[in-house]
Amino acid sequence: MALCRSRSLRTRFAAAIAALTLTLAGCESGAGSRSHDGRQRLTVAAVPLTDSAALYLARDRGLFAKEGLDVDIRPVQQSIQALPALLKGQVSVIASANYVTYLQAYEKGTLDLRILAEGVRITPHMMDVLVSKDSGIRTPADLAGKKVAVAVLNNIQSLTLNAILDAEGVGRPVYRQILFPQMGPALERDQVDAVHAVEPFDTAIQDELGARVLLDGGSGPARSLPASGYVTTRDFTQKHAKAAAGFRRAIEAASKIAAEDPGAVRAELPKYTKVTADQAKSIHLPTYPVAADAARLRRLVHLMREQALLLRS
């Protein structure tokens, strides 16, 4: 299904999902490399966050193998780092892909986006604004004009924090881009006044530095928003429709396991993140949806428009 650039983003976004459905209903039009046992090989880039838990569960529970897929997971520090490889076909899918970044790339025409499956939705304390234990910042109002670290500028973290602060009628901070693994050291060295950390880094920074939770990043207007997903290109879904459909089924089956048994996620986290088994027991997990929810995605698009992260009406 061809997409018209003059359509509203809402229509185009719905078309992206509809196009995927149509593509998946058709015949596989391409052939990728195959493993020795005949399974189709897929390379998936993933950030080592709780967002990626369903991906690892699908691999370790044999759900990809059941679909005839041999999935190779390549860790990246930011999902956007994998975008060039996705466009070149060197990566098939990006997991834990921050919707804000990829919707912006879609609007700009950089990426002909297709969402294979929803990743996670925001829950209370799956991300927090943390300050050092002796910080003079005591309330969200104190953040006005202060330096707050986020992993990527103009992204889901600043989008949701701005929305929370706007709802409370207080001023916004100034954002600094710092990768999640470097947020703890940056806070310890007073390079920033606060960090907006996502699990499992959130819990790790609290444990290691005694950092204090100033604000629940999953509260208010941020709660239940879809944060990330499994994204690919239209070209991939057209050439490898059968593999795309199998990947989606495997992720949705793994998300069902994650939703019904949080212990399965907690057991998986120490395998691909730096958190310990003890830390994994207390981490705040996101929601792992078993299917995409268009209404929630529209909420995200609306919020992005309000903050001028999407420019077209």
TrEMBL record:
Main location: periplasm
Domain SsuA/THI5-like residues, every copy: 50-263
Keyword field: Signal
Domain of life per record: Bacteria
Subcellular location: Periplasm
Any one of the GO CC terms: periplasmic space
Family, similarity comment: Belongs to the bacterial solute-binding protein SsuA/TauA family.
PANTHER family: ALIPHATIC SULFONATES-BINDING PROTEIN-RELATED (PTHR30024), TAURINE-BINDING PERIPLASMIC PROTEIN (PTHR30024:SF47)
Protein name (database record): ABC transporter substrate-binding protein
UniProt organism field: Streptomyces griseochromogenes
